[in-house]
Amino acid sequence: MGTISKPHGTRGAVLLWLRNIKADDIRKRDSAFVEIDGWLVPFFIESFKISSAESVIIKFEGIDDETKARGITGNAVYVSPAQVKSKRESSGEFQELTGYQVFDSKLGFVGIAGEIADIANNPLLKVTREGKEFLIPIHEDIILEVNDKVKEIKIDAPEGLFEL
Fold first, then answer.
1. Lower CB count within 10 Å: N or C terminus of the chain?
2. Which domain holds residue 62?
3. HSE on the CB side for 25, CA within 13 Å?
4. Number of neighbours of residue 28 by Cβ within 10 angstroms
5. CA atoms within 13 A on the CB side of 2
6. Strands 101-104 and 152-155
């Protein structure tokens, strides 16, 4: 994800320079791993503020002053892949998903993807299951992963969506 550049202020916040991703592409901002002495140490994020497209200001729990912040300066920071928007998500490229198999995190296989319906800037993925058509919002909290190699989409559907 990036490297801690320097402390920001006197209360333990740090400036994090990002690598290979943009600040807007970080979707879940609750925890991160800081590499300390070769180990990935988990930290909860108290606050997260976008400073620029390439940097963010982060305040970790337990890092409460400038001295502690200096102690982690220069360290690499990582997040899980689920916390970062895919390139497809961040560029809005969801038009070529027809025929992909759709799998829900709880239900497993739920159907085959069809066309995208763009209804008032609210894109919906049409999924056919057992002869019925369901509309799934194209949202970062619902579409978890799109795997073009195996033509699969992993989702976390809202409760009851496929019971209608």
1. C
2. 2-84
3. 23
4. 16
5. 22
6. parallel
pLDDT at 84: 72
Which of 57, 84, 111 lies at the terminal end of a domain, its last residue? 84
Q: How does strand 13-18 pair with strand 2-8? A: antiparallel
Task: Indicate if 73 and 94 belong to the same structural domain.
Answer: no
The total number of structural domains that make up the chain: 2
78 CB-near residues (< 8 Å, 6+ apart): 1, 32, 33, 35, 40
Residue 28 is predicted with a pLDDT of: 66
Q: Could you report the per-residue pLDDT of 8-55, keeping only the tens digit for each?
A: 999 999 999 988 777 777 766 788 899 999 899 999 999 989 888 888
In this structure, which amino acid lies at residue 40? Answer: L
| CB neighbours of residue 14 within 10 Å | 25
The count of other CB atoms within 10 Å of the CB of residue 97 is 23
9 touches 51 (CB < 8 A) = no
Beta strands in the chain (DSSP E): 2-8, 13-18, 31-36, 39-52, 55-60, 76-78, 101-104, 108-119, 122-129, 132-137, 143-147, 152-155
Q: Can you read off the two tokens belonging to residue 118? A: 């763009």
3-class DSSP state for residue 70? helix
